[in-house]
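User: Please fill in residues for this 298-position structure.
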């Protein structure tokens, strides 16, 4: 297949690399020259650099995938005279894997549909490790028949490919999951800090939580207390992993989505404020489990 790929950062780079490994021809674009070069060097002749999104759109792709930081970037790539929608050829499918708010995803998919272009929203979870290993989870919104037709392409980059319903529902699933993740990480951090300050050994406490009713992913797979688990950010100074500022971004998306639906999210809002405080202290670059530093003695 001829696949366009726009946004070759921490996630998009390895995702594109997996498509190349599967033998597809890639037409790529990013604002960062170095990210383009890396893929071209990996697969000379198979990865071709083009100079703008509209050039990729006009070159007649089977699929164009975008993996961009936030809604503003997605709008700038899809909309306007130089955007994908204006320039895309007939029969190209557009897939946006960026994490953005469901409203923007629905708005752009609606414009695509009005001109007869198929568009799917397909945000991911699994982090950079999952992107490299090709084990991402894709949460896909759009027409079910389009999802079934294009499911195979997601399988080259991910392991769990889930149809979530109409346009924007992939983003809804992502936002709901990450809001819960933010809340559960703060809860785990509080509980671990309380137990240790009252005299418990952190490993023993985590072991009890993980076989009791407090068990959750934040505790049993990604425990924020240093030394409880190996090979997680808390055991390497909170480097790598999923940045606190990215969690803050996702909590902001949840807050916006909740506002538009008039849906109360008291704990989600509080989690957003707690991560905002952490970011203001200059720690937004640390993994999101570093939030425990707010509750521990220095
Ligand atoms: P990143 O900042 O590493 O990469 C984004 C890339 O988009 C950059 O290379 C940037 O140059 C490029 N870009 C920005 N504007 C552009 C434009 N107008 N045209 C072309 N390229 C442009 O971000 P990332 O970590 O790869 O994340 C991408 C998306 O995936 C985000 O929405 C993020 O929330 C989501 N996500 C990230 C993770 C993670 O662990 N990093 C996990 C799940 C989901």
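Assistant: Residues filled in for all 298 positions:
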């Amino acid at each position: 297949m001829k696949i366009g790929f726009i946004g070759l950062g921490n996630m998009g780079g390895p995702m594109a690399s997996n498509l190349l490994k599967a033998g597809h021809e890639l037409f790529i674009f990013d604002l960062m020259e170095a990210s383009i070069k890396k893929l071209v060097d990996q697969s000379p002749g198979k990865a071709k650099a083009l100079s703008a999104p509209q050039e990729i759109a006009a070159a007649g792709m089977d699929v164009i995938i975008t993996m961009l930081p936030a809604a503003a970037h997605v709008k700038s790539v899809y909309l306007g005279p130089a955007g994908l929608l204006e320039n895309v050829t007939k029969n190209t499918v557009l897939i946006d894997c960026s994490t953005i708010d469901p409203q923007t995803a629905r708005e752009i998919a609606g414009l695509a549909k009005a001109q007869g272009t198929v568009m799917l929203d397909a945000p991911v979870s699994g982090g950079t490790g999952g992107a490299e290993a090709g084990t991402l989870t894709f949460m896909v919104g759009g027409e079910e028949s389009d999802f079934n037709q294009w499911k195979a392409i997601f399988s080259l980059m991910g392991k769990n490919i889930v149809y979530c319903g109409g346009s924007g529902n992939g983003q809804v699933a992502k936002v709901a999951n990450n809001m819960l993740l933010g809340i559960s990480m703060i809860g785990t951090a509080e509980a671990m800090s309380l137990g240790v300050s009252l005299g418990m050994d952190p490993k023993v406490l985590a072991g009890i939580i993980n076989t009791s009713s407090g068990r959750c992913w934040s505790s049993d797979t990604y425990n924020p207390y240093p030394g409880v688990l190996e090979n997680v950010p808390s055991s390497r100074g909170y480097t790598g992993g999923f940045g606190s500022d990215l969690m803050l971004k996702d909590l902001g998306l949840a807050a916006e989505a909740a506002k538009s639906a008039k849906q109360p999210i008291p704990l989600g809002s509080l989690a957003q404020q707690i991560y905002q405080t952490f970011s203001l202290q200059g720690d937004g670059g640390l993994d999101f489990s570093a939030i425990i530093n707010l509750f521990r003695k220095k």
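For context: The pocket of nicotinamide-adenine-dinucleotide is lined by residues 6-12, 29-32, 35, 67-69, 73, 76-77, 98-99, 124-125, 127-128, 242, 246 (CB under 6 Å).
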